Amino acid sequence: MTIQFFYNEGEATLRLSGRLDTATSAKTNSDIEQLLDSAGAIRQLTVDAGPLEYISSSGLRILLMLAKRYKDFRITDVNPQVYDVLNMTGFTKMMTVERALRQLSIEGCELIGVGGVGTVYRLDDDTIIKVFREGTTMGEVSKEITMSKEAFVMGMPTAISFDVVKVGSQYGLVYELLQAQTLSACLKQSPERVDELARKYADLFRQMHHIQVPASSCVPNALEHERSQVLHIRRYFPQEKIDFLLQILDAIPSGNSLLHLDLQAKNAMIQNGELMLIDMGEVGYGHPILDLAHAYSAMVTLVGDYEKIIGIPRELGTELWNHAIDYYFEGLPTDVVALRKEQIKAVSCVRNFSWLALSDSFPEDVINECKTLFDERVGKHRDQLLAVCQTLKDWQ
């Protein structure tokens, strides 16, 4: 019997492998207690029972104890044999128990895009699949499904997943997208269309930012989430640098606009001439500058292998962005547009580094590159950045 433990911002997962019977239950119980006690505050606990082959009454008592201890508790990926035991003993009525998901293979599938939380492949002409990174919980997958539906109901053209699957040990979301291709792929295929596609890209941002998220929505506060991500990267940066990033965030006005927060050119798909959103895991509400700053960070100042992540040469991606942001602010005076661009660039400094919070397993060379870039992009321009941020209060 083996246990794997994953923890991320209050959400914990125990992955149980093997046989949870009388011979193993005492040690398993002790190991679980040690793991849970060593973590931070746990808001949600998931038991991933995918590799669990058998459970006895002593094992059931461990699950019951955990269900009583954590209000938000679920058991996922349960195979038919274990599910029958849980069903016959009434566990399926006392707590959330989810059957095992069907397995899919991505062998030979076309790679569409790589992001911080997952990789997207084309399964066939009709469907694509987003495979989440190792360690992603079912709760995080469910959040993306929920955010996609929320955005769709509010009026955004959004791809809706119709199936949750497993690819090996990782979760996947299957989307129906008939003959669709990413904005990046379309631009790479026809770079002469950059101006036309930039207008579509800008219109997608404008359409989204005109949507005001109601108080009754489950869409989270984007600024609060950004702050939590900055606090999460304290492991990489000294407190004075963290405090400066937080100071930039404090200057951002409040707002209720719908924000995607990762709308780079691989997260927009073109279907029948219409741009639609995918990869909705970071959706939130707030001031549009946060969304635009995130996009600028990806499309212009991205850290890492730009062509692999965005799908086009950096020069072409930057050209797309420059055209799009001019269309986004179309109609405003020239001096106002120039200021807005400086404001976006300043706020983007936060996303340049807060994206490291998306995973705790980025390569050391990527982390070191970010540490070096902090001084180049932030440290040397501290006073100028603060001066620009002081103007944000006038962006309504």
Q: Could you tell me the strand content as a percent range?
A: 15-25%
Put simply, the count of helices is 15
- The mean pLDDT is 92
Rg of Cα set: 23 Å
- The SS-based structural class is alpha/beta
Silhouette = globular
What's the story with the biggest beta sheet? Answer: 6 strands, mixed
Number of extended strands? 16
| First-last Cα distance | 57 Å
Low-pLDDT segments, ≥5 res: none
Helix content: 40-55%
Characterize the structure shown.
- The radius of gyration is 23 Å and the shape is globular.
- With about 400 residues, the protein is of the alpha/beta class.
- The chain has 15 helices and 16 strands.
- Helix 1 packs parallel to helix 2 and helix 7 (about 195-210) packs across helix 12.
- Strands 1, 2, 3, 4, 5 and 6 form a six-stranded mixed sheet that branches. It has a five-stranded antiparallel sheet with strand order 7-8-9-11-10. Strands 12-14-15 form a three-stranded antiparallel sheet.
